[in-house]
Amino acid sequence: MNAIEITNLTKTLGSFQLRLPKMTVQRGLITGFIGQNGSGKTTTIKLLMNMLFADTGQINILGKDINDNFLSTKQQIGYAGDKMGFTERLTLKQIAYTISPFFEQWDDDLFSRYIKRFHLDLHKRYSELSKGMKQQFDLIIALAHHPQLLLLDEPTANLDPLARDELLEILRELTANENVSVFFSTHITSDLEKIADYIIFLHQGTIIMEGDKDDLLENHRLIKGKTAHLVPEVEDLFLHISRNQFGFEALTANWRQAYDVLGDEAIYDKASLEDVFIGYVQNQR
Amino acid sequence: MSTILSLCRLDFYKLLLYRRMIAAMLIISVLSAVVPAWIPFIYIVSVYMIGVTLIAFDEQYKSNYLYCTLPITRQQVIAARFFLYFILALGLFVGYSVLTIIGQSKLPALDMQFLLLGICFAFNLIFVGLTQALCFRFKFSTVRIIAIIGYLIALVTMSTSGAMVQQAPKLSGIVLDANQSMLPLWGIILIIALVVFGFCYWLSQKLYLHKDFVD
After folding, report:
1. Residue A211: which pLDDT band, with cuts at 50, 70 and 90?
2. A230 touching B (Cβ < 8 Å)
3. Which of A1-5, A126-130, B177-181 has the lowest average pLDDT?
4. Which residue of A30, A219, B103, B161 pairs with B33 in a disulfide if CB–CB is 3.0 to 4.6 A?
5. Residues of A in contact with B14 (CB under 8 A)
6. SS (H, E, C) B13-42
7. Which residues of B touch A138 (CB under 8 A)?
8. Which of A55-64, B47-56, B92-101, B117-126 has the highest mean pLDDT?
9. How far apart, in whole angstroms, are the C-alpha atoms of residue A99 and residue B13?
């Protein structure tokens, strides 16, 4: 059973259209959802949370149609996003106190443990927290009711490196020990390089590439060589080529095939997720 | 029902942020026993303040996003809000009725004062229900203008009616015999108010259930 299954989903917002013919998020894995600003990441997550309604298509969460099993499904989802809707002048304690009754599995001990772990002060007002601290608190609220699925919309955007590491560690623990599924949207690809199992690239409202993270990083390479080697059959192997005065730099999805053609005449550097993402986006243009 | 009560508690905590406003309202309410003719006016203002404050909070803090993250339905969100409005209007009606009875010696016609309070109760139900429903369709800033206009109409009505209460003994058609009862009139007002309130509830459900939260 998949954590999320999306079929033929479309949503039009003004001039923007999201089109997801098929998208799955596997259970127990951390799935990274990468895209530029305005690519449709937040729209997708809002559709999963019923903040927006799809024009067409079906969404299954944890094996159930979200519209048929709305309340039981929502009990299993932890969400942290840009807008949480908390009454910001309330203290963290008051916010937790007013929200906890809605969740059957709310765990006060777990909540307190996370508060200590992130060094937050329960008596502070939400409005007094820094952006990073707010994001930490949002995550604690998302985690404190033992969700089976975490939907995180840019959860690390405002965190300092230490807090970011702490969060990634928590996500690692959750997937390893409690089989929690994580759907993590971001444009900070370095975070996903550390923890993601599966990657989905979104561009202009549609998925342009997806796959196992390790396979992606293994198969994609940045190839540097002389311009003279750029014959049409070689160019066909590349997703994106940039030329400069010293030669070319190109991204390939199958570096072994490229090696068969170019051999030791070129340099084969490992590509980061960011390189891969940029390569695919530029290939679309 | 527990979800509805939890949602009401959430709203109650929002209102607690305006402790000074609530404290001022309480003091003015208690003092109104001294000048009971002002009670309908204070009743209208109280419900207006609380209702609009809650809607303003929703707008300011984007509460709809929070509701979407909780395991509750949109029907429950609307039901809780209207339940709170009803309890609020009814609770304040009871409170101000008690104050009216305390200060009755200063009133020329107690029956008319209660009729006025009944009209205020009806107006309050219609007013908060309609304001809430309109907020699901229009921007809060627009609705606030409509609300202020409605509020001013209510004030003019209350002032006129208040004057009538003062003059009641002199107006032969209005002064009631001991055997006559205001109950039928009361019933009509209450039914009209509940029908309009129910319509606003239905309209809110209709507008809110399929609303996209884009911003």
Report:
1. very high
2. no
3. B177-181
4. B103
5. 87, 90
6. HHHHCCHHHHHHHHHHHHHCCCCHHHHHHH
7. none
8. A55-64
9. 11
| A119 CB-near residues (< 8 Å, 6+ apart) | none
Give yes or no for residue A201 having a pLDDT over 80: yes
B177 DSSP 8-state letter:
P
Task: Give the distance from residue A199's alpha carbon to the nearest chain B alpha carbon, in angstroms.
Answer: 24
CB–CB contact A85 B62 (8 Å): yes
Going by the DSSP 8-state scheme, the letter that residue A244 receives in this structure is E
- Give the closest-approach CA distance of A46 to chain B in angstroms: 8
Q: What is the mean pLDDT of residues A137-153?
A: 94
- Local structure of A201: helix, strand or coil: strand
Burial class (CB in 10 A: 0-12, 13-18, 19+), B215: exposed
Which of A52, A98, A105 to substitute to test the interface with B, most B CBs within 10 Å? A98
Contact B210 A71 (CB under 8 A): no
CA B106 – CA B148 distance, rounded (Å): 31
Q: 């540097």: which residue's tokens?
A: A224
Which chain A residue has its CA at the smallest distance from B212's CA?
A: A52
Report in angstroms the alpha-carbon separations of A196 from A178, A180, A190, A210, A236: 16, 13, 10, 12, 30
- The chain A residue lying nearest B9, using CA atoms, is A98
| CA distance between the termini of chain B | 30
What percentage of chain A exceeds 90 in pLDDT?
A: 53
B106 interfaces chain A, CB cutoff of 8 Å: no
In a mutational test of the B interface, the residue from A50, A92, A102, A149 whose CB has the highest number of chain B CBs within 10 Å is A102
Instruction: Say whether A80 sits in a helix, a strand or coil.
Output: strand
Residue positions counted in chain A: 285
Highest mean pLDDT among A1-10, A233-242, B126-135: A1-10
Number of A/B CB contacts below 8 angstroms equals 74
Separation between Cα atoms, residue B130 and residue B126, nearest integer Å:
6
Q: What pLDDT, on the 0 to 100 scale, is given for residue A212?
A: 94
Best residue in B1, B13, B69 for a mutation probing chain A (most A CBs within 10 Å): B69
pLDDT classification of B168: cutoffs 50, 70, 90: low
pLDDT at B180: 56
ipTM for this prediction: 0.87
Interval B169-181: pLDDT, tens: 555 455 555 445 6
